[in-house]
Amino acid sequence: MTTPNKDWPLWEIFVRSAHGLAHKHVGSLHAADADMALMNARDTYTRRAEGVSIWVVRSSDIVASDPANKGALFEPAHDKIYRHPTFFELPDAVKNM
Amino acid sequence: MRSPSPAPTQAALYACAIRLGDNNLILGQQLARWIGHSPELEEELGTANVVLDLIGHARVWLTLAGEIEGLNRSEDELAFFRDSRDFHNLLLVEQPNGDFADTITRQFLYDAWHRLYLAELRGSQDARISAIAQKAATEVEYHLQRSREWVVRLGDGTALSHDKMVAALERVWRFTGELFEDDETDRELAAAGIAPLPSTLHAAWQAEVMRTLERATLSPPENVFMHSGGKCGRHGEQHSYILAEMQALPRMYPGATW
Questions:
Q1: What's the CATH architecture for B10-252?
Q2: Beta-bridge mates of residue A27
Q3: pTM check: above 0.90
Q4: Per-domain residue ranges for chain B?
């Protein structure tokens, strides 16, 4: 027997919509543990056949970048257009780029 | 080579479809009352998904029952314009929602039976029945996973949740005997290779239930008098209230659509 914890922890849900694609963050939900988080994710986020795979991660386990640090982290990339692969012609057969 | 099975009578085939339809219709209707009252938002969505599955199953079984009967009765006519005596659901599914432990216990005991019954129905000699069972089986597989996990969670949870599960088993267990009772119709359906004989499912059901109850640190009540009669239309008082709520609107405005 464990002591009751009235508030279930928050979980972040990632769903992969098709084979070959990456898992994508779709939202969050509450659940007592990982098993329940998977079931709740199935019931909340794949009701309309959205997915073939689900990941659940405790929200508290996610380490996020500091919004205040946005300038130092991301601005240097803005003026380096040569890093974008925009100078190549994409073959039509490539669907998910 | 087995000798060819005797063809089932139309009445037995109708009973097969109507019983399955009524079980799912009544349980779905009952479970739907949790919508707006569930303990957690996520739980509410999960419950709603099960409700939609069960009502979906009820629709195809009742439609099939109407086809077998041959009187042009639609799924809606069968659902909304029969009285309690003409419903053939198991007593288990008409038991009140009670608290969450009662609902989960009722659901788990039914899901465990439902999964086994559908697994056998997939091999039915009647192609319509086996096709419906095939599709329904994967949905019920998930229902069982869900209710099984809740039984373990609540039974092996806090002192309060454990006590509530003990009380729930006390209330609901006495309606599980009927799940495995064979009547004339069952024997005829089994002889014709249409549906399994209920008594043959008991051992597997017992194994599943005991395994789960053990994980949940629970045990079924002993020396229980088993109630039955739902399959032949003898229902408890609450059955009429379920029907009253479900049927009031279509009876007041027959043919109403939206």
A1: Up-down Bundle (1.20)
A2: A13
A3: no
A4: 10-252
Q: Which residues, numbered 117 to 146 in chain B, qualify as contacts with chain A under a Cβ-Cβ cut-off of 8 Å? A: 142, 145-146
| Residues facing residue A56 across a β-bridge | A13
- pLDDT band (50, 70, 90) for residue A42: very high
Bridge partners (DSSP) listed for residue A10: A30
Q: Which residue of A has its CA nearest to B144?
A: A39
Domain A10-64 has CATH 3.40.50.970: no
User: B145 and A32 in contact by Cβ < 8 A?
Assistant: no
pLDDT tens-digit readout, B16-34: 999 999 999 999 999 999 9
Q: Which residues of B202-228 are buried (b: 16+ CB within 10 A; e: fewer)?
A: beebeebbeebbeebebeeeeeeeeeb
Domain ranges of chain A: 10-64
- The SS3 assignment for B1 reads coil
Q: DSSP class of residue A26?
A: E
Other CB atoms within a 10 A radius of the CB of residue B85 amount to 11
